[in-house]
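Researcher: Last one for today. Full complex below.
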Amino acid sequence: MSNTILTVDNLHVAFKTQTGKLTAVRGVSFDLKKGETLAIVGESGSGKSVTAKSIMQLLPTATTEVTKGDIVYNGESLLKMTKRQVTNLRGSEISMVFQDPMTSLNPTMKVGKQIMEGVQRHEQVTKAQARERALDMLKLVGIPQAENRLDNYPHQFSGGMRQRVVIALALACNPKVLIADEPTTALDVTIQAQILDLMKDLQKKTDTAIILITHDLGVVANMADRVAVMYGGKIVEQGTLDEIFYNPQHPYTLGLLQSMPKLNEDRSQPLLPIAGSPPNLATLGEGCAFAARCPHTMTVCHTYTPRDTVSETGHSVACWLQDPRIAPSEEAAELVETGNSSL
Amino acid sequence: MKRYLLQRIGFMLITLFIIVTATFFLMQLLPGTPFTNPEKLTESQLAILNAKYGLDQPVAIQYIQYIGNLVQGDLGYSFQHEGRTVTSMISDRIGPSAFIGLQALVIGAIIGLVLGIVSALRHNSILDYGSVTLAVLGMSIPSFVFAALLQYYVGVKLEWLPVALWEGYSSTLLPSIALSVTVTATVARFIRSEMLEVIGQDYIITARAKGLKENQVIVKHVIRNALIPVVTMLGPLAVSIMTGTLVIEKIFAVPGLGEQFTLSILVLDYSVIMGITIFYSALFILVVFVVDIIYSFLDPRINYKGESA
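Model: Here's the assembly. Have a good evening.
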């Protein structure tokens, strides 16, 4: 446990809307260990980004609120810190890379300056030293002719190069945790691979822990040590990469894996979608959020919220099918089997 | 860049030419002639005057002559003030107008910026609603209404500032304030909406995620980016001030260009009307041009050099 750098415990985040509070994150818990990569996957609206932003406390306070739970960084609760303390951590201890590199850089500021700003904010350095650091960072993320590029504006870079700049900016102060919120979603596939390789490479050099938020299972397979699957504002399954990919326990995880196109299968074979659509968070009550779409629904699923069932290896699933209090059914056994055979 | 500038200057000249032509012919449609007769001139006296100023020629000939003179920089003589050139009349009158106008621009820009920035930072607060209401009032109530109110309350009742006339710096204040109301309102509304837009941009979250303090984020990232487009407002603002002076100078009896302009229209002083119109148009066209050039320096995404962005 001493290895754990960040703990999110039973986090609840609500949006204040005109019709009342809408809870978008409904009890998310996970640990992040030093130097590891945790992927948080889930479809749009499952609460991935909200979770990430609430760690950095970047959600607008006028409309959002952490209603329950805690976020602990290095033994200290981020939620109990003063605004000043949190600001001091941002960028220096915990950094973030955003989804769209086209909009996440200030268009009227030279990129060198944008990197220097963070360095000058957190470290006692002269302007020249900060500039030196910015240059080193641009070289580190593989931007050619970095010396000349320092004084360029964001619009003079391509999308992939901009994301490299954003990564350089995020890593400039050697943070312990990097939160990457869909860092490759806005990039084309070849650039995606480059950026992911870059992140992996940098992680090895700097030993930064990464929280990778994505809906792309391909990215997950490539990057993650552990995976947390989110659905309806909760983590429904969490385990190592192998556990999630080769031994998925939750019907939703299974559905996600089955809906991926496979290269070795007949192309005329249609993709297997998960029937139905994501839940409306405003009307979610007790019971499993996935019950309405689950092919294995039982009566209990609609009335009681499943608890996490944790295996010895730490593989946890929030599903009644896996709950020891329910007698192991044929259905459950069958599900596990189909899960294995399809992969 | 050079190519772009030449092209722009070409278009500016064409625009000016169209304005000159349109004004010239529209003016002919005004009822009456410059010498209709308050002084009970005889037919022969009128004929002499018309001949002196070339008004006995067909309109087309007059037009060609006017353009010919204009190209040489000659705006002609006033029809009403014996022996005075239009150029000298403009240069005599421009001082007070320019002073009032610039002072109004400065007052309006400063108050407008402060109001706009504060209301964006306190979005949806009473402060915000208050300044938005003020801005709407300022934009919808014409400046001469404010002028009359200022004259009555500040000038007559409180006797703080002179009601009218042009006697020292204190007489410039009321006309400038009356003129600045529209500027304040326009700038406040504009900067407010620009700020709100910038605050919602992703790069502001990036700036916060870097750990910058809130005031650094606001000053370096929000206000800086919100201010750039405000420069584009200079053109429309210059127009509103120019048109504003027409009425304001009359109300405050300021011996400025606007007052001269209204006077000349009343007595159909053709050459002066033409001269001031050309002067105002040229000034406006120039302001727009300068704004575009300044903009390219402020916003790195815009360049006229034809390089690929």
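The domain at 93-256 of chain B is CATH 1.10.3720.10 (MetI-like fold). The mean pLDDT of chain B is 82.
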